[in-house]
Every structure is written in C-alpha cells, then in structure tokens.
Amino acid sequence: MAVTTYTVINGVIVHEDRGGVERDYIPDTLGSTVALADASSFTDTWVYWPYGEVRSHTGTSTTSFTYVGTLGYCKVTTTSQMTYVRARMYMASRGRWATVDPLWPQELAYSYALCQPNAISDNLGTSGNLGQCRRSGSRMSCFYCAYKYYSLTGQNCPQYACKLANRFCKSHIKCGPCGVCNDPDIPGCFNMGALIRFGEFLRGSSSAGKEFNCSKSCGGWGTGDKLAHCFKGCALAFCTGVGICLTGDDNDPEDNEAEALGAAIGINLLAYGSIADCFYECANATEGMNCY
User: Fold this and answer.
1) pTM of whole model > 0.70?
2) pLDDT tens digit string along 230-267?
3) Three-class SS of residue 28?
4) For the segment 183-200, what is each residue's pLDDT rounded down to a tens digit?
5) Domain boundaries, the chain
6) Is residue 94 classed as helix, strand or coil in its secondary structure?
7) Which of 15, 96, 187, 200 gives 20 to 30 Å between its CA and that of 128?
C-alpha cells in the first residue's frame, strides 16, 4: 500500500504525495475540496449537496478529505457518509451529528452548522456558532468569540479554553492560569498568611477587596480550585524544603492529587525556581482537571 503524506499550512491541507504522485488541494470558501491538481491539470473534481454528500465526482482519487476536507473533515472510508471531525462524528447523509454537542445544553444537541451548511463549518466538532466566530472579522474578535464558547463547557479550566480558542482562530494570544487575565501578585515565603489568602483568592472564597477570582476576572468561571490545591502543596514544599503533602484532608480525591502534584513541583523548583513559578507550573499540571 502506497504511503500518503500531506502538507498542512496554518491548519489547512494544501498538498498530498500519494506514493510519489503529487497533487494540490483546491478548496472552496467553506474549505471543501473542489479539485485536485497535478502539475498540468485537474485530476479530480467534486460537487456537493449542501450538507456534504457528494453530488458528482470526476476522477479516480481515493482521498478522504473531501467535504470541508482541507480543514480536517475526514471520511471514515472513502465511500462512507460518516465523517470524523475531531470531537465527534458527522453524518452527511442525515445532515446532523451522530453524538451530542460537547457544549450542550448551551448549544443544540445534534444540529449541524446552525442549519446553514453553505456558510458555516465546524472543524472542531463542537458548535456551529464557532463557525460564525471565524467570520467575525479579525483573529482577535474570533478568539474572544471562541473563548466564550469553550468557556461554556465547564470541563476545561480557563487556560485550556484559551489555548483551544487560539488553535481554532490561529491567533497567538498569551494564555495564563486564568485564561487571558492579568497575572496576579504572588506573595513570598516570608508571608505565609498572605500565601494562605492567595490560595483563597484562587478559590474565590476570600472577601478581601482586591480578590483574584477566575469567576470575576474571566467572565463566568467558578473557581481555580485544583490550581489552588496544587499551589498550596507547591508553596509548602518550596518554603519548607520538605515535600509535605497534606493528602487525605479533603473528600475530593482530585483535590488531594492536585496537592501531591504541587508538592512534587515545589521540591523540583528548589534548585532553579521561585515561589511564583508554583503558580505557573501548577496551572499547567492541573490544566486537564475539573476546575471545581
């Protein structure tokens, strides 16, 4: 079987080398492959029905990247109507998704592209509204639009939602532990009371006037609870020089796991870091954890 390699530029498939046979992908404005071309002519052409079924095809190509294919829609087989779109499967023959939108109930469960398949695509498989984000005029406005929708999942902490929005909009906005918020002032080891209060700030449980709270700073997030637990373990280890881990004092095993991660990070930072690094290292370590 011939090996096929693809050239991708800014997330868009532009070229393939199929066992030594090279061809360029020609997309329409939606990202669907309307032709393949070699050095001298078109070798294949496609025309689609609105929801992605192939209306006509000339040529003999077996590529799986057809309907919105240059953006990554990939048919399970070249003859299948089931298409893999990262987060879930799309059924072109029915014009709907095979599984529920990860953003449900904020988004419709199975509807594809807000019933506007000629204008909107969804190359992450999450929400037709994200397709509208791409059409919002600039990468900056696309980013904030996409960040809003990723924030609705409740499953990703702010930093991860920020990274997803950057990836979707091809932007390069700096992502911090609280999404795109400004970094906080972090106390040093000399003031343990301030460090404790800082942990409360991360959880949003403090009544202090200048409160660092992801829910208030990032438009709707609850708290940075796992980040707070990790920071607690890291700060204790860094400031005492001992990998103390206060696991078992919380009913949530993921809280205890976060503190254990923090303790290990704090010991590692003794040789080369600062207590401020606890904040950023813990943000990365707890990125995939539930925020609450």
Assistant:
1) no
2) 888 888 888 888 766 555 455 678 888 888 899 999 99
3) coil
4) 667 788 888 778 777 776
5) 4-80, 113-169, 192-285
6) coil
7) 15
